[in-house]
Amino acid sequence: AAMVQKYQSPVRVYKHPFELIMAAYERRFPTCPLIPMFVASDTVNEYKSEDEAIHVIERRCKLDIDAPRLLKKIAGVDYVYFVQKNSLNRRERTLHIEAYNETFSNRVIINEHCCYTVHPDNEDWTCFEQSASLDIKSFFGFESTVEKIAMKQYTSNIKKGKEIIEYYLKQLEEEGITFVPRWTPPVACKLESSTSHTRRPVSPAINIPDSATKEGLNNKEILNTSSSPSEPTAGTPDDKLDADYIKRYLGDLTPMQESCLIRLRQWLQETHKGKIPKDEHILRFLRARDFNIDKAREILCQSLTWRKQHQVDYILDTWNPPQVLQDYYAGGWHHHDKDGRPLYVLRLGQMDTKGLVRALGEEALLRYVLSINEEGLRRCEENTKVFGRPISSWTCLVDLEGLNMRHLWRPGVKALLRIIEVVEANYPETLGRLLILRAPRVFPVLWTLVSPFIDDNTRKKFLIYAGNDYQGPGGLLDYIDKEIIPDFLGGECMCEVPEGGLVPKSLYRTAEELENEDIKLWTETIYQSASVFKGAPHEVLIQIVDASSVITWDFDVCKGDIVFNIFHSKRAPQPPKKDTLGAHSITSPGGNNVQLIDKVWQLGRDYSMVESPLICKEGESVQGSHVTRWPGFYILQWKFHSMPACATTNLPRVDDVLASLQVSSHKCKVMYYTEVIGSEDFRGSMTSLESSHSGFSQLSAATTSSSQSHSSSMISR
User: Fold this and answer.
1) 711 alpha-carbon distance from chain centroid
2) C-beta of residue 439 within 8 angstroms of C-beta of residue 296
3) What residue spans define the domains of the chain?
């Protein structure tokens, strides 16, 4: 199997003019003591233009790769040869470097592009960028070993690149060379051409528009194949990350980590329609997946879709937490820890989780936790500015004093697990440290139950103190300054966090009220809600004119189990009569419930099924798509799923009897969203849909068969 590794560097800025950097760069040849593996280089080809503005030089470089003796023996070589072609343009003040391997070129393909250009905002500074690809076709069965060696050698050389230039700059300075004049055209030229040229180097920006128009058409291809990232047009400099910015705001990253960040960011800029997340947030998703770019992209896209659906970007500005939360939710931000991380204090033991869930419903609770996380992201940014170093996570102090069996109430634990799940999925790598204080005797039992659900990386950040141990050595003082230890922990700092306490039962609301409340929060999204009853499915009509369109759907089963069907009919169903709600109008005040399929229609004669029925359980999120084969009318149907009676006996099971006694069990709720994509936008849009929903079934233009629905529990359970 061929493996392709790609590398893209940040922009490195040298605060020296281009000509001086070139003088330093030239000193690397024919050999360079700072790169021990660079044994020798010979010039194979050379070309100079008459006016000396253009200088192209091709060298054959001999490298002594640091590889195990055995591997060299198997490969039968001691040295590896590369061809390096340098094209210097003194008029434009650019140097383009291209390198590829000559040794083993049929087994391994290595390509590298580097370029030195003038800084767009300061013509006395120089920018450097490089990109490379490594494709190992075969290597005597040692492909992965060779890949590791190559990557290791390459990344260590990337680090050296800057040191080498700086070393030779210093050498030049010691020899008294601190200025190299710019190229000027030979005086013999006609006057007007010389004036037009002498002006050009002074303002290099002039060159950019004309190359940009040339590149404009195939700019996309350049970016996608990344065959030529050295093109200055491949992205405006504002879009690029420079090495100093990364160090200051994002931290010390290895070259490959920087490359992953740059490539993922570039991919988002090209394909993502909405708001692009901040660099530090993209980096969190990469860290959460050990810098596996594909896995990180998948979870990041899911999270971006989720943010859009739930309008999370606006939560801090638009949502006011209900008074109950402000009074009884015993958590809040409190200064910062010794590492400068924002500190969140949660007095979980004092908090009536059951009361909060009963008075608010888990939606409002989840929304509150989201607003806390959004605030956390904002505080990290703030602290990064204040402390002058990257701070990307916060510390959470949880006080369990007062924890009791009430906290183990099932719906409360379920709400908690759901909240943890949503937070882990959308705010990865934000928890820097979790200090659990005053853990009661029952806690170890609880901990063994919960800990398997917590990600390993996260678990390493937990510190648990029983009783008053937090006051002893290795305790709280190691992590938090004495001045800000809260009063309730025996410190001297007034802590504004609410005390918690029992939520009065008078504030409890019925399941029905909560249900309506939940929908209120949900309807801020693009979804429609529908009720489904026994004998009364909900149906949606989609008219298709162009045969190969794509119908896409995305729905959440909020309550009950349903069967999802999609039908095709050549003739239009009758418009739904208003009184279809007749029988149910009492039970469903706001329920949207429409039947389109006429009772007299027969399946197979009047309409046909185009996808096999899909049973969807309560709490599931389902996304899918169907490529239409014929024009006409398509009907999406959500139907009540009745449990078959127990197979072994004809007696009804106790559960079934109980279920049928509850009226509400005959009512299901669905939140749905559908969209039709025309065949002309088909390919492009489908791929963007696929990338933003891992759930979308892999669709190629060729597929017309069904079975493309795909259920995934993305935001579910």
Assistant:
1) 21
2) no
3) 5-175, 243-310, 318-506, 525-573+592-642+665-683
pTM: 0.65
Contacts for 137 with CB less than 8 Å, ≥ 6 apart: 2, 106, 107, 108, 109
Q: Are 624 and 697 in contact (CB under 8 A)?
A: yes
State residue 195's pLDDT score.
44
- Per-residue pLDDT, averaged over 309-313, amounts to 83
**Residue 565 in this model has a pLDDT that exceeds 80:** yes
Q: Which amino acid is at 325?
A: L
> φ, ψ for residue 453 (rounded to 5)?
-85, -5
Half-sphere exposure in the Cβ direction for 348 (13 Å, CA): 22
Angle at 453 between CA 449 and CA 456, to 5 degrees: 115
d(CA 546, CA 145): 52
Mean pLDDT across the chain, nearest whole number? 79
Q: Are strands 431-439 and 394-399 parallel, antiparallel or unpaired?
A: parallel
The pLDDT score that the predictor gives to residue 199 is 38
- Does residue 634 sit in helix, strand or coil? strand
Distance CA 368, CA 416 (A): 12
Report the distance separating Cα 262 and Cα 250, nearest Å.
12
Contact 551, 623 (CB under 8 A): no
Tell me what pLDDT residue 250 has.
94
Q: pLDDT value at position 692? A: 33
Mean pLDDT of 207-216: 34
Average of per-residue pLDDT across 201-230: 35
Is the bond preceding residue 30 a cis peptide, omega within 30 degrees?
Answer: yes
Take residue 361 and report the two structure tokens written for it. 């419903």
Distances (CA, A) of 625 to 331, 461, 526, 610: 43, 41, 18, 12
Give the C-alpha separation, 84 to 87, whole Å.
10
Angle of CA points 359, 361, 363, to nearest 5°: 140
Rg (CA), the chain: 32
State the average pLDDT over residues 702-709. Answer: 31
pLDDT score for 528: 72
CATH topology of domain 525-573+592-642+665-683: Jelly Rolls (2.60.120)
H/E stretch holding 363: helix 353-387
For the domain 243-310, what is the CATH code? 1.10.8.20
pLDDT at residue number 259: 94
* Arithmetic mean of pLDDT, 588-609: 81
**With respect to CATH, is domain 318-506 assigned 3.40.630.30?**
no
Q: Are 379 and 369 in contact (CB under 8 A)?
A: no
* pLDDT for res 697: 30
Question: Which residues neighbour 625 within 8 Å (Cβ) at sequence distance 6 or greater?
Answer: 550, 551, 552, 553, 686, 689, 696, 697, 699, 708, 709
Q: Report residue 386's pLDDT band, with 50, 70 and 90 as the boundaries.
A: very high
User: Rounded to a whole number, what is the distance in angstroms from the first to the last CA of the chain?
Assistant: 38
Q: Is residue 447 left, alpha or beta, with left meaning phi > 0 and alpha meaning psi from -120 to 50?
A: alpha
Domain spanning 5-175, CATH architecture: 2-Layer Sandwich (3.30)
The pLDDT, as a whole number, for residue 534 is 86
Interatomic CA distance for residues 554 and 556, integer angstroms: 7
The DSSP element (H or E) to which 270 belongs, if any, is helix 255-271
pLDDT value for 573: 84
**CA 449, CA 422: separation in Å to the nearest integer?**
19
CA 624 to centroid of chain Cα atoms: 22
Assign 548 to helix, strand or coil: coil
- Torsion-angle region of 699 (φ positive above 0: left; ψ -120 to 50: alpha; else: beta): beta
